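Hello support,

Our group uses your service weekly, and this is the first time we've seen a run hang past the timeout. The protein is DeoR/GlpR transcriptional regulator. I'm not sure whether the cause is the sequence or the server load. Input pasted verbatim:
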Amino acid sequence: MNQTNRILKIQDMLNEKGELSTKEIMKVLQVSQDTARRDIVKLVDMGLAIRTHGGVLSLAYQKKLIPNYSERNLINPVLKNKLAEETLKYIHQNETCFIATSTIFNLLCKKLDQSLRVYTHSLDNMNYLSTKPYIEAHLLGGRFFPKNRFFYGVDTLKRCERIRFDTAIVGCASITKEGAFLEDEEDALIVEAAIHNSQRIILVAENTKFNGSSVFKICDLHDVDVFITNKKSGKNSHTHWFPDEDIVVEI
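Update from on-call engineer: The timeout came from a worker crash unrelated to the input. Re-ran successfully.
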């Protein structure tokens, strides 16, 4: 079987199962590990799938794995509240901050109690910020993305690129050795621009985000000044991926 036919077969399998391991591909197609890996690379290069640790994931299945904003609001509320409280300790009076879209940052905006200038492209963040007279709140408006409740677009991005931030407070959908990633390209472009224009980067994420499969990169791990997460027991913690483990804050 030539590579074109193998690719078609792998696509059929992905459409049925959503995710495949390299070993499954080897077994079904009766090929070597090197051949299976080359086929996976070809699929990824063609934009038809996402490579994972030990296999491959269909784009449609990857979207299903990540719940929307409303669904995420219901997941681990106690932990998210603790992460928001810890993040609050690293925000300084009279700073100009960018606060990204996140259910954690929605809680953070609710807790902010100091004089700040805050820019955000999140509708839910703005709803809380707008009630605080001591915060100068700016919404980076544009076209609304209803699934994850943020604004985006060329004008949104251009405005973000013109602002110098003291601190960018950002989250991510996944973390690998290569960096932090988001699910939506439109969101990633804005967050990446804010990171580029910030003196200090605070990355906040639950430990479940390690080794995820989102594809839109927002920063390298060496760009991060503070990483706030929850402790992961045993040998599965990946905080050693950060060049300076002193920046890691585990609650």
